[in-house]
């Protein structure tokens, strides 16, 4: 049931404050400050809208998870949904329609659209019995929403993928029946455009080509047959992106802003050790492949193109006292060489749950980096201006 309680449309004053990063001295704007976790959208999902003046985010305020919008000119926060009981919605996977004033999220195995101006909600799709919803994304023409539905294996596999990846490997090995579904956002019948008996995830539409989407065979990278795939929704053709090699693993794929290039990172494996880490990109037709080594322990990367890349370092034990492992870093592509990493700031994120993953990403114009961190004890959103690359300290 969709709630219309008194919280919807409520506006709070700005919570933001500015601190200086302890390593670089760069000003960091903490956008949220509440005794509850707040988090930005998944790193493949652009949360900016209204010509870049507003930002969507999720927050667990008042013991309930809801969707909020922040005015980036004033800092004011508006509550968009009002769910107070029952299963929480998956607001981290919210996706904004690039052509309409609406966004989409899932709750109770339903996909719900919300008008970002009137806050009106409506159910546009419900997964069939014995299937669960995956992530979703909207085509660049704003006409279709694409998602994946996965066979429900809860009767035999205990999972908690959002907190600790419990059941992650077991689900991949079980090879659940999965279907990629195309849903008309204006209403009408959904259609299955691809299906396999393998765990499918990360369904990401191209931001410029309405007929293209990427998806992955989900699971531990060294366990799946092949990670990154592309689908032509017009023809039904499916093909591998960055064909696999023995002991070479890639993932965390995302589209560049041009909508024809896919970025990723990966590593080569030698015996039980992971080495040979690299950052790569390739066009959807597997041309113009670029891969460059980088000696850094990293969780996710993001970029609008190949010129400047942001990534989040993985936290090490506090007893080691290594202040440089939990940093947001930049790499610059100069004349075919990947310079860096240069430290933008510390994130000090715990990665304890999916909503607390740092997931740094550039703003659409590339001038800022947004990330989530629970450095204060609660997850909050942080926004940092990107200075000249050469002005940043090098990673030791």
Q: Topology of this structure?
A:
Elements: E1 11-12, E2 17-20, E3 27-30, E4 38-40, E5 48-49, E6 54-59, E7 66-71, E8 77-79, E9 90-96, E10 102-107, E11 110-115, E12 121-126, E13 131-138, E14 144-151, H1 168-174, E15 177-184, E16 191-197, E17 200-205, E18 212-217, E19 228-232, E20 238-240, E21 248-255, E22 261-270, E23 273-283, E24 290-293, E25 298-302, E26 308-313, E27 327-334, E28 337-346, E29 361-362, E30 368-373, E31 380-385
Antiparallel strand pairs: 1-8, 2-3, 3-31, 4-6, 5-6, 6-7, 7-8, 9-10, 10-11, 11-12, 13-14, 14-15, 15-16, 17-18, 18-19, 19-20, 21-22, 22-23, 23-24, 25-26, 26-27, 27-28, 29-30, 30-31
Please describe what this structure looks like.
This protein has 396 residues and is an all-beta fold. The chain is built from one helix and 31 strands. The protein has one helix at 168-174; strands spanning 11-12, 17-20, 27-30, 38-40, 48-49, 54-59, 66-71, 77-79, 90-96, 102-107, 110-115, 121-126, 131-138, 144-151, 177-184, 191-197, 200-205, 212-217, 228-232, 238-240, 248-255, 261-270, 273-283, 290-293, 298-302, 308-313, 327-334, 337-346, 361-362, 368-373, 380-385. Strands 1, 4, 5, 6, 7 and 8 form a six-stranded antiparallel beta sheet that branches. Strand 9 and strand 10 (102-107) form a beta hairpin. The longest helix is centred in the middle third of the chain and has 7 residues, at 168-174. The relative contact order is 0.12. Mean pLDDT is 90; it is low at 1-5 and 315-324.
